[in-house]
């Protein structure tokens, strides 16, 4: 395997992990915004408790992705940040407000006049960030940074739906109360249906106006990803219906990973179709080697620490 | 507004905001580690209350610090794409390692903040240690990048292209050690004086003195006093380094207009284009400080091409602000040491002075960072890339500047309000009694 392929896989791994874990936290915010019914307060409390200990660690995957991109593919980082300046700045604003609002509303919880507006900010910002990340991703896929095209905007909506699906499935294991669990159960099924419907839109809209995108969408990788997403969605649905929530978690994680890997596979070896390829944007070998060594050393500390965090807060010994 | 000015203003605002939170992110875990360690050793309850109170402050400061740091990661691309195109492959290594340090910080912050009842007391106390270490280490890695910007190394230029990249050499650019030490100590100065100042104001306001607040003042001032003394040594080292390796910045700091022997130290004054008025000058002192010899030659601004001239008046002003604040802080720390060693009660004026050290430490931090950044202008990477050539050409930067500035103001107000509440309330009073009680707030 070449060096460039190696760092590209590291980048993809970072994006997948951010999409799954960071995405689930964004989705938690989406359900926080949409909390309804007699148990809305309990829903929000469950979301807060689930996100609280892990969201900052999950957020670091984004930093990891950015750093990987600018270290290993600096021209791509510069080109994307220029071409998609606006949607990325808005996504960034969403990230900033999401994190701050989450801390503010929790630490002002006994002062509803202050906590309530921040709760709304938390939910809205959690929706805005994945939407604009999705639109930016759609913009890259068009090869023209056309993030306001119907295709890219549909990818944005699709991204929000994926986050909501992840969060609903993840929250099933976080709620003890049977009634609360039923709430998230219903939401998980709704979100999975939503992912199917909203996922179809970008596929249909990837018309001939963007040749690179059209070709990518009709590649084998894209076909596998589309079929796989639908199939895994069915698995998620079945696991939720059968109440095997851990299996549902794993299935929804693979589903999201499949969507992203499909996107990568469909446009590879292009990084930004028509503008930059992985090898034309890659840093010199010395940098890539140093980066991979740094990642290997970092992983030695990171993996046990992360496992410890999740075993304390997300493990079966929780209750 | 010119797009370069807008980009610089936005980057400057973002860093000026983030650097405060980052400093507390480095220093507070250490203070908390000390306080909780004292609680485990002495079982003296005020230490426990102190650790819990500070932990709440850390939660808020770290959350805002993490997201404001994310802003900077994005802004490197959103505002300075050309810089990243040139420098990405060279400065990526310290940034990658910083990413892992940030990971460890975030993981153990989660364990620490939410683990009071889930971890054993010893494990919980030890969880603060990785936060303290990785906080300092990640600040160090970021500073390595700044060192590279001051003296870019680890590559060769071939027809304007960066070739022969040596990432390790780039990671350890010549100023790396003096800069990392100076910046890291600054974080402890800010956190020590910052927390001590909060406690000092609380002591001035409330009677009788609460043991928790007295303990907080002691721990804060202990860290601050050690740090401010070390900072003078580190500051001297970095100035000496600059005199030799960054002579333009050094000449701007000290307003040395002509290369000369017996160079004076210039304090204050109105720095005009060609002359400096009303300044206090100590003849020969600068030469002496640089080389322990008043006859030593100090390179002046006359060696700098007009196109490469930094904004001298600005650099000199902020340098004086930094040194002035540091002098006051050193004197106040000395006074505190004298009173504490003689076991005398702290008089109100001294408490007020300690309270003043909070803002002074932040002022010194910001001023010091302004010195290094303005002192490097017009370069973003000295000798390699000019700032105006590095800025983005994307439209709408001005709008972003305004939007993010408003966000910073709101976040600052909200942080101040929450920290004040956490600081002034009884530690257990504002904790949610039960998940149900907490849930009531989300309605």
* Chain oligomer state: heterodimer
User: What structural class do helix, strand and pairing data of chain B support?
Assistant: mainly alpha
Strand percentage of chain A:
under 5%
Radius of gyration of chain A: 19 Å
Give the radius of gyration of chain B.
23 Å
Spatial gap, N to C terminus of chain A: 45 Å
Number of helices of chain A: 13
- Mean pLDDT over the full residue set of chain B: 90
> End-to-end distance of chain B, in Å?
44 Å
Major interchain interface with per-chain residue totals:
A-B, 77 and 79 residues
Give me the count of strands of chain A. 2
Main beta-sheet strand count, sense and barrel state of chain A? 2 strands, antiparallel
The largest sheet of chain A has its strands arranged as 1-2
| Biggest sheet: strand arrangement of chain B | 1-2
Helix content of chain A: over 70%
- The rough form of chain B would be described as globular
Strand proportion of chain B: under 5%
Q: What's the number of domains of chain B?
A: 1
Number of separate helices of chain B: 14
- Which blocks of ≥5 consecutive residues of chain B have pLDDT under 50? 429-443
Sketch the major β-sheet of chain B.
2 strands, antiparallel
Q: How would you describe this structure to a colleague?
A:
- The complex is a heterodimer of chains A (319) and B (443).
- Chain A has helices spanning 3-33, 40-51, 55-72, 74-83, 85-107, 112-142, 150-171, 178-205, 211-217, 220-241, 245-267, 278-281, 285-314; strands at residues 270-272, 276-277.
- Chain A is mostly helical and 319 residues long.
- Chain A has one domain (3-318).
- A two-stranded antiparallel sheet of chain A has the order 1-2.
- In chain A, strand 1 and strand 2 form a beta hairpin.
- Chain A is globular.
- The model of chain A has no long low-confidence stretch (mean pLDDT 90).
- Chain B is mostly helical and 443 residues long.
- Chain B has one domain (3-249, 312-374, 399-431).
- Chain B has 14 helices and eight strands.
- Chain B has helices spanning 3-42, 45-78, 81-114, 121-150, 167-171, 176-205, 211-245, 247-253, 285-291, 312-341, 348-376, 387-390, 397-424, 435-440, and strands at 156-158, 161-163, 265-267, 270-271, 276-277, 280-282, 379-381, 385-386.
- In chain B, the strands form four sheets. Chain B has a two-stranded antiparallel ribbon with strand order 1-2. A two-stranded antiparallel ribbon of chain B has the order 3-6. Chain B has a two-stranded antiparallel sheet with strand order 4-5.
- In chain B, helix 3 runs antiparallel to helix 4.
- Chains A and B meet through helix 2, helix 3, helix 4, helix 5 and helix 6 of A and helix 2, helix 3, helix 13 and helix 14 of B.
């Amino acid at each position: 395997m070449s060096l460039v392929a190696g760092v590209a896989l590291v980048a993809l791994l970072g994006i997948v992990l951010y999409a799954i874990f960071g995405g689930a936290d964004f989705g938690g915010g989406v359900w926080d915004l949409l909390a309804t019914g007699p148990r809305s307060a309990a829903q929000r409390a469950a979301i807060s408790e689930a996100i609280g200990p892990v969201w900052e660690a999950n957020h670091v995957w984004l930093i990891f992705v950015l750093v990987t991109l600018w270290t290993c593919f600096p021209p791509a980082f510069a080109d994307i940040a220029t071409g998609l300046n606006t949607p990325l700045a808005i996504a960034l604003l969403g990230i900033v407000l999401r994190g701050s609002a989450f801390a503010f509303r929790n630490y002002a919880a006994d002062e509803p006049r202050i906590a309530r507006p921040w709760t709304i900010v938390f939910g809205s910002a959690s929706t805005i960030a994945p939407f604009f990340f999705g639109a930016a991703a759609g913009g890259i896929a068009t090869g023209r940074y056309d993030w306001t095209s119907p295709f890219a905007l549909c990818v944005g909506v699709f991204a929000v739906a994926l986050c909501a699906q992840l969060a609903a499935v993840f929250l099933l294991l976080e709620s003890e109360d049977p009634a609360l669990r039923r709430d998230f159960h219903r939401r998980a099924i709704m979100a999975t249906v939503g992912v199917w419907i909203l996922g179809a839109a970008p596929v249909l809209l990837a018309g001939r106006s963007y040749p690179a995108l059209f070709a990518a969408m009709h590649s084998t990788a894209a076909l596998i990803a589309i079929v796989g997403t639908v199939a895994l969605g069915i698995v998620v649905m079945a696991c939720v219906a059968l109440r095997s929530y851990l299996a549902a978690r794993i299935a929804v994680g693979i589903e999201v990973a499949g969507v992203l890997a499909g996107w990568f596979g469909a446009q590879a070896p292009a990084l930004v179709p028509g503008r930059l390829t992985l090898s034309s944007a890659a840093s010199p070998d010395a940098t890539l080697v140093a980066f991979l060594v740094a990642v290997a050393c970092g992983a030695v500390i990171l993996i046990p620490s992360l496992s410890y965090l999740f075993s304390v807060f997300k493990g079966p010994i929780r209750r | 507004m010119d797009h370069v000015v807008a980009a610089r203003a936005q980057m400057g605002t973002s860093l000026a905001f983030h650097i405060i939170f980052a400093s507390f992110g480095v220093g507070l875990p250490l203070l908390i580690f000390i306080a909780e360690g004292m609680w485990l050793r002495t079982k003296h309850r005020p230490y426990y209350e102190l650790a819990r109170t500070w932990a709440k402050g850390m939660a808020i400061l770290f959350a805002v610090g993490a997201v404001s740091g994310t802003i900077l990661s994005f802004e490197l691309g959103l505002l300075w794409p050309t810089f990243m195109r040139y420098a990405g492959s060279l400065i990526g290594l310290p940034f990658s390692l910083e990413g892992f340090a940030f990971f460890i910080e975030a993981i153990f912050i989660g364990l620490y903040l939410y683990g009071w009842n889930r971890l054993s007391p010893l494990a919980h106390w030890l969880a603060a240690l990785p936060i303290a270490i990785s906080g300092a280490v990640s600040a160090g890695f970021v500073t390595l990048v700044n060192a590279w910007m001051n003296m870019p190394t680890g590559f060769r230029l071939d027809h304007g292209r960066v070739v022969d990249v040596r990432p390790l050499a780039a990671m350890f650019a010549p100023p790396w050690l003096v800069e990392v030490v100076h910046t890291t100590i600054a974080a402890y100065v800010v956190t020590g004086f910052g927390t001590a100042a909060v406690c000092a104001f609380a002591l001035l306001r409330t009677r009788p003195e609460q043991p928790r607040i007295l303990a907080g003042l002691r721990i804060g001032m202990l860290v601050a006093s050690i740090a401010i003394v070390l900072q003078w040594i580190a500051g001297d080292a970095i100035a000496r380094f600059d005199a030799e390796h960054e002579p333009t910045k050094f000449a701007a700091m000290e307003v040395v207009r002509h290369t000369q022997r017996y160079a004076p130290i210039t304090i204050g004054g109105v720095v005009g284009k060609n002359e400096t008025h009303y300044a206090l000058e100590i003849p020969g002192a600068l030469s002496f400080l640089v080389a322990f010899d008043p006859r030593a030659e100090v390179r002046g601004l006359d060696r700098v091409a007009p196109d490469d001239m930094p904004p001298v008046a600005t650099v000199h002003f902020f340098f004086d602000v930094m040194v002035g604040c540091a002098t006051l802080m050193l004197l106040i720390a000395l006074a505190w040491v004298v009173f504490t060693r003689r076991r005398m009660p702290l008089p109100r004026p001294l408490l007020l002075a300690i309270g003043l050290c909070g803002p002074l430490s932040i002022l010194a931090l910001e001023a010091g960072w302004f010195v290094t950044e303005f002192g490097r202008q017009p370069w973003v990477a000295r000798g390699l890339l000019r700032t105006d050539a590095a800025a983005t050409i994307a439209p709408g930067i001005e709008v972003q500047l305004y939007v993010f500035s408003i966000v910073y103001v709101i976040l600052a107000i909200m942080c101040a309000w929450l920290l004040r509440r956490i600081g002034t309330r009884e530690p257990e009073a504002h904790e949610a009694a039960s998940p149900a009680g907490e849930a009531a707030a989300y309605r």
